[in-house]
Amino acid sequence: MNTPRPAARTRTRGTVARAATGLLALALVLTGCTSDPLAEQYREGSNKGYVAGDGSVTEIAEADRGAAIEYAGVDENGDTVSSADYAGQVVVVNFWYASCAPCRAEAPDLQKLNEKFGDQGASFLGVNVRDQAANAIAFNDTYKITYPSVIDVDDGGMQLAFSDRIPPNAVPTTLVVDKEGRVAARILGQITAPSILSTLIRDTIAEGK
Questions:
Q1: SS3 readout for 41-95
Q2: 19 pLDDT higher than 90
Q3: Where are the domains of the chain?
Q4: pLDDT (tens digit, 9 = 90+) per residue, 174-204?
Q5: Thioredoxin domain location, by residue (predicted)?
């Protein structure tokens, strides 16, 4: 039932963690057809409101990234956002929602990196998986977030587009998408070492030069 996944290099804060492999399409995951530990947390039904990632960083070699991911949605300001808008750019895609404690904790670091790489060929895009636009706008005001977020709570289109890279309900998750629209790296859980994400972004920007 599992679809083969690319070979990847995995790094964690201070220790080497096993790369997450064999992720299923979102529909299969939600029906329980997986042994993913994050899916197990999801099915436990804890009251914390999110599934905590383990902090693992998975990098995918260029030759193993597969096809480009196409997506589209509407952001908190009512503007249409699509993968075509980011053609030729590296895109950092962060899955979040306002009441998620790790999402709040990492927000300032994401904004700083957004400012750092804004003129270097990388853009940031949030995907809000639970809130309506008003909540997302309030969050942006509180944490001074300037990049847009697709409001994905109604149809889950963005989550489905990336479903082979993100476990069910694993929030936050941050993906680095290369210039060709393919996932180059993934961080499961809160970004507690911004320098790691900075390195992933810089290395992805440098590809092909």
A1: HHHHCCCCCCECCCCCEEEECHHHCCCCCCCEEEECCCCEEEHHHHCCCEEEEEE
A2: no
A3: 8-206
A4: 999 999 999 999 999 999 899 999 999 999 9
A5: 60-206
Strand-by-strand arrangement of the 173-177 sheet: 8-11, 57-60, 183-188, 173-177, 90-96, 122-128, 149-151
Residue range 81-112, pLDDT digits in tens: 999 999 999 999 999 999 999 999 999 999 99
How far apart, in whole angstroms, are the C-alpha atoms of residue 205 and residue 208? 8
Q: What is the pLDDT of residue 168?
A: 67
Cα–Cα distance measured from residue 13 to residue 23, given in angstroms and rounded to the nearest whole number: 22
Q: Other C-beta atoms within 10 Å of 153: how many?
A: 17
Q: What pTM does this model have?
A: 0.76
Per DSSP, 151 falls in state E
CB 151 within 8 A of CB 136: yes
Helices (H), the chain: 26-30, 37-44, 101-117, 133-143, 157-161, 194-206
Task: To the nearest 10°, report the CA torsion of 73, 67, 197, 170.
Answer: 60
- Dihedral of alpha carbons 7, 9, 117, 169, sign: positive
Task: Give me the half-sphere count of Cα atoms (radius 13 Å) on the Cβ side of residue 89.
Answer: 18
Amino acid, single-letter form, for residue 126:
G
How much is the pLDDT for 18? 36
CATH architecture of 8-206: 3-Layer(aba) Sandwich (3.40)
